[in-house]
């Protein structure tokens, strides 16, 4: 009986398919993804809450809802949004200057438009860089008006300042800057749509 050797097929040199070595998602990747999503939602929530603070201040001072501004004393009723606050400044290097500005039409308009613009921008998630710049300027002026470093007012009475530097105006300013740097308008906002507009693409400072 003849024995026939089976010919050995030459398979050649084969490289493994890249698909076989595709890395599966690791726990670290999933954790990073979840952390990124959570961070986006946290910043979006912070943006909306901060925006409501500015927008509500505009609405209350405009219509006198009875909170900080009494009923019938709103801007539409002839009241001045700046007269009470600036007229009551009793300390700081700009005390006399603020007294001169108190109740001036230009000061009322600038203040109210600033509060409205910052509030709408934050809630919509657009123009966060402009909102941060305008809001920081407003907060800086209000910080100077209250002048936390002073222990005593101009008349010698205690200022009741609880901190020589940090107060809520400074915190709001830092929050505004952080929201702009983080690009917090894309989540729960129109930031992505806004960024794709041609005039915004050409002028990145409008982001």
Task: Briefly summarize what is shown.
The chain is built from eight helices and no strands. It has 207 residues and is mainly α.
Rg, please? 29 Å
Shape: globular
Report the uncertain regions: 1-10
Distance between the termini: 88 Å
* Number of beta-strand segments: 0
Oligomer: single chain
Share of residues in helices: 40-55%
For the largest beta-sheet, the strand count, sense and barrel status come to: none
Class computed from helices, strands and strand pairing: mainly alpha
The ordered H/E elements are: HHHHHHHH
Q: Kindly report the average pLDDT value.
A: 90
Percent of residues in beta strands: under 5%
Task: Detail the topology: elements first, then pairings.
Layout: H1 27-63, H2 83-87, H3 95-101, H4 105-124, H5 128-146, H6 168-182, H7 191-195, H8 198-202
Helix pairs in contact: 1-4, 1-6, 4-5, 5-6
Give a verbal description of the structure.
This protein has 207 residues and is mostly helical. The chain has eight helices and no strands. The protein is globular.
Features:
single chain; 207 residues; mainly alpha; 0% strand; globular; disordered N terminus
